[in-house]
Design brief:
By secondary structure, the chain is of the alpha+beta class. It has 10 helices and 16 strands. It binds arginine.
Length: about 350
């Protein structure tokens, strides 16, 4: 209880200082009373908004933090049924997608409270492609294999293409989780083509436009929000150098290289590197042509430098996880590569949590 109060106090004080608000003593005594009586306390709407933004600003692994203060927060703490949650998720998807002009958005469901069942989203991201293991090979995204199996156990079934969108899955307390297929008209997807290689479009590749992480826990001032899906927009390498390229994901480098006519018989021809760059060019080109927000890794690094400058001017230390901040393509071309970062985690943040299944 004392721990909770201390976490609460640190957060509330930071909120009052950064927002130049009066009355912190009064608020703190209210928080103390509520904790003593109920074992928890309730954030005001403004505290919730600030807390969600602060948690982003504190996310050591995120290169996109320049935009922390523009996060749009939907307060869905009143949602109590699976139906309410599905509706809120659909609203999130529509608002965040914004016909391609992606808006950084979070939807916050009710926090863990003594005596109330937790709401959990079983999806890793709200939009994600299913993965199936089929005689030796894979269909779709191998990252989704376990979750896809769960969905099938719950009665969902996919078309077994490489790009089957998984349904929303919501669990409340110990109830059997409920699932709902995602309305197609709410989903932005970008078909991938290349500005110079006409054959690239025939590979039949695509990716969804908005990455909405839905399995992390948001902690604000000691309060735990286990269902708080949030999104920014993609950096091209996330798709071009990881999701589509990793051997244990879509593993597309060999195919792209062979279509390019590269000599793949020796590592030293650097065919992987050449194919990787063209894949990333295709991603950027396609997203831009379709008017879907995306950032390249050089621009993202410059934006991160502005974030570092802003924080310094505000008298705050930037913490960071170098191993995540450097882009997977040409890392040493960015300033991030040439610096050290303090990887201490501030307690208002987004955390991994145990899977509900
Ligand atoms: N790397 C993840 C993916 O490829 C998304 C993580 C969040 N990314 C972001 N740009 N907000 O799906």
């Amino acid at each position: 209880m004392n721990d909770l109060y201390n976490e609460a106090k640190a957060f509330i004080e930071q909120y009052y200082v950064e927002n130049e608000k009066d009355g912190v003593e009064e608020r703190l005594s209210g928080v103390k009373e509520e904790i003593n009586a109920h074992g928890t306390y309730t954030h005001t709407y403004d505290e919730l908004v600030f807390g969600a933004k602060l948690a982003w600003r504190n996310s050591n692994r995120c290169i996109g933090r320049l935009f922390w203060n523009s996060l749009h927060v939907f307060d869905e703490r009143e949602a109590s049924t699976e139906e309410d949650v599905f509706n809120a998720l659909e609203r999130h998807l529509e608002f965040a997608s914004n016909e391609g002009r992606i808006r950084p958005t979070i939807t916050v469901f009710r926090p863990s409270k003594p005596g109330e069942p937790d709401i959990r989203l079983w999806n890793h991201q709200l939009l994600r492609y299913a993965g199936y293991k089929e005689d030796g090979g894979y269909i779709g995204d191998p990252h989704s294999i376990d979750f896809t199996k769960k969905c099938e156990e719950l009665g969902w079934s996919g078309k077994k293409t490489d790009f089957d969108l998984l349904p929303f899955v919501v669990g409340i307390g110990d109830n059997e989780p409920k699932w709902k297929s995602i309305k197609e008209e709410l989903v932005l997807e970008v078909e991938l083509r290349h500005p110079d290689f006409p054959w690239f479009g025939d590979l039949g590749l695509k990716w969804y436009g908005v990455p909405i992480i839905s399995d992390m826990e948001l902690k604000i001032g000691g309060i735990s929000y286990k269902a708080a899906p949030f999104n920014g927009w993609y950096m091209e390498t996330e798709m071009g150098a990881r999701n589509l390229a990793d051997v244990e994901r879509y593993n597309l480098l060999p195919k792209v290289a062979s279509c390019m006519g590269l000599d793949t018989s020796r590592a030293s021809t650097l065919w992987k590197d050449k194919a990787l760059i063209e894949l990333n060019i295709a991603v950027l080109h396609s997203f831009k042509e379709d008017g879907v927000s995306v950032v390249d890794h050089h621009t993202a690094a410059q934006q991160f430098r502005l974030f570092e400058d802003n924080e310094e001017r505000a008298g705050r230390e930037v913490t960071g996880d170098w191993t995540w901040l450097i882009p997977p393509v040409s890392p040493a071309t960015t300033h991030i590569f040439h610096k050290a970062y303090d990887n201490t985690w501030k307690s208002t943040n987004y955390f991994y949590q145990d899977k509900p299944y």
